[in-house]
Design goal:
It is a multi-pass membrane protein. This protein has twelve helices and no strands. The chain is mainly alpha-helical. It has one domain. The relative contact order is 0.15.
C-alpha cells in the first residue's frame, strides 16, 4: 500500500544524478518489511497464537496482524500525504498547474513503449524473485531442513534484511556508472547483478547443507536487491 507511492515520490523529489540512490535506498528500506514480517510473524507472534489454537489455525490467524497494519498505514497515507511535492493532483488541475491526462491515454502510451516491456521483464527477474522468496522461503527451509516454523521464519527473514544496504548499493553503483558512462553504465550494473543472481538461485536450489544454504541465501539476496536498486 506504500511501495509504489514511495518510489514515485523519491523519483520526483531528487535530481536524476542521485535519483537511483534515493529510489533504491527508500525502496530497500520499504522492502525490509518483508524480512521484519517473516521474523515477527513466524518467530514472535506465531508462538503466542498457537498457545490457544492449533498450529494451522494459529498461522492463518496471525496473518490478520499485517493485514490490519497495512490497512491502517494505507488509510493514514491517504489522509495526510500529498500526491507529489507540489501538492495534490486534483488541486493542481483546478489551478492550471497540471494538465488533465486520462488514465487510459497514459496507460496506452506506456504499453506501446517497447522499453516498458524490457523493464517489465528485468524487474520481474529481480523484484518478482523477491516476492516469491518472501512467500516461499520459510516453507522451503522448514521442509528441506526439517526446521520448526519459528526457526525457518527467522532464517527466511535474512532475505529481507539484506534490503538494509543491498538495494541502496545497487542504486548507488548505477548512479556512479551513469555519471561516467551514461545509460550504458546502468545497464552494465543491472546485467551483472541479474547474472550473478541467476547463478546464485541455481546454487541455492542444489545446496543441502543448512549453513551453506544460509551463506548462499545472503549472496543471492544481495544480488536480487542490488538488481532492483539498479532498475
Amino acid at each position: 500500500c506504500t511501495f509504489v507511492m514511495c518510489q514515485y515520490w523519491s523519483t520526483s523529489m531528487f535530481a536524476k544524478e542521485v535519483a537511483g540512490t534515493a529510489n533504491a535506498l527508500v525502496g530497500g528500506w520499504g522492502n525490509l518489511g518483508g524480512g521484519v514480517t517473516q521474523l515477527v510473524m513466524g518467530s514472535v507472534l506465531f508462538p503466542l497464537f498457537k498457545q490457544g489454537m492449533s498450529p494451522e489455525m494459529a498461522w492463518r490467524t496471525v496473518s490478520i496482524v499485517p493485514a490490519c497494519v497495512g490497512f491502517l498505514t494505507g488509510y493514514t497515507i491517504m489522509k495526510i500525504s500529498d500526491d507529489c511535492p507540489k501538492g495534490n493532483y486534483k488541486e493542481m488541475k483546478q489551478n492550471g498547474i497540471m494538465n488533465e491526462v486520462s488514465a487510459a491515454a497514459s496507460f496506452r502510451d506506456g504499453a506501446l513503449n517497447f522499453n516498458t516491456w524490457l523493464l517489465f521483464i528485468q524487474y520481474g527477474c529481480c523484484f518478482g524473485v523477491e516476492l516469491t522468496m518472501n512467500n516461499a522461503a520459510a516453507s522451503y527451509f522448514k521442509e528441506t531442513f526439517d526446521l520448526s516454523t519459528e526457526s525457518a521464519a527467522a532464517i527466511a527473514s535474512i532475505f529481507g534484511w539484506m534490503n538494509l544496504f543491498a538495494r541502496g548499493l545497487g542504486g548507488f553503483t548505477s548512479d556512479k556508472l551513469n555519471a561516467k558512462m551514461g545509460m550504458r553504465g546502468r545497464l552494465i550494473v543491472q546485467t551483472i547483478t541479474l547474472a550473478v543472481e541467476g547463478v546464485m538461485v541455481l546454487v541455492f536450489a542444489q545446496t543441502k547443507s543448512l549453513g551453506l544454504a544460509i551463506f548462499v541465501l545472503v549472496i543471492f539476496s544481495t544480488m536480487v536487491q542490488a538488481a532492483e536498486g539498479s532498475t
